[in-house]
Amino acid sequence: MSNQKGSILVTGANGGLGSAIVSRIVSVPDLETYHGIFTVRETESATALDAALGASSSEPGVFQSHEKISLDLSQLGSVREVAAAINARVEAGAVPPISAIILNAGFTEYDTQTWNKDGLDLTFVVNYLAHWLLVLLLLRSMDRERGRIVWISSWSHNPEHPQNIMNGSFKDDSCKTMITDALDPLAKGLWSPTASEKPLWTAAYRRYGASKMCGVAMIHELQRRLDQDPVLSKISVLAIDPGGMNTGIVRHSPWLLRFLVFQVLAGVLGRLLVRLYPNGSWRTPQKSARDVLAAALDCGPLPLTEQPKGVYFNGSELGDYNPEAKDPEKGRVIWEGSLRFTQLQGTETILRNWQ
Which EC number(s) does UniProt give (predicted)? Predict the structure, then answer.
């Protein structure tokens, strides 16, 4: 372990983008000195992750240590158990401190709406709340000189994005404001409920976007709190939109949508479009994996720096994002709600300004 630079933690490592990130980590010689911590819902059925790890074994001269961990992001108890185990291993010196946490796992629905055992909307919990809790718990294990937290975003979080204007998902003005005076409507699935919507997909899509917006807000709210902490002030928080890709996150959508939009447009034409427009709407998981790892580890070229704090990337360039995520008052509401719904205690995090 003495020769390792640090650890890279990736959630959702069995997904389309997640497995592409892992494939790059374990196959690029420059990354072989990092230890990979790859979380999936069930390690026994992580076929895409296993394929990415298996392909690396045939690469000459490349050896990268890694581990697979089962993490159920729908249950906050699972988050606490996994974080405690990782913290103990870092403290014992079994694995190096975490250089980058890549919050990649995602979940979306189509014509249904589900809640976890605590009565919280599953889309909100998996995409945002569980990730927020994981980060707060793992701060004690991060590299305090160069550590980075990377939220994987989506154009769905911004009602004014051209794709959202085109698909009409936010055409009703009442849907364009996601946060008012409390986080409860988002957390409990009362904002944009599926049961009251036609067509059904728009409600689920908006909830997905709102959960992503909460994560983007953390590039300001969490970054501000880290900057005020004398121990953690060098840690960077950023977000990146990887673009539209043909991945398993659309598996709950109708067959025709999956085929025409994601398999044909994103899957086939995407390989051509990404050559013409590298940061356009449609990209490949491989291109986006390169962008994500650059955001997580690289110090240049601009807009990347040694400490790219509070930066939102669209692929490899600066991107525009939902003004709600930039609003300090909205950030405070999201933070306070996150504390309530996770029941975070001061003994669980080393962040000084956690309340």
Answer: 1.1.1.270
pLDDT in tens, 144-174: 999 999 999 999 999 999 999 988 899 999 8
Task: Read off the pLDDT of residues 95-129 as tens digits, 9 standing for 90 and up.
Answer: 999 999 999 999 998 888 999 999 999 999 999 99
Catalytic positions: 208, 212
Which tokens sit at 304? 């990347």
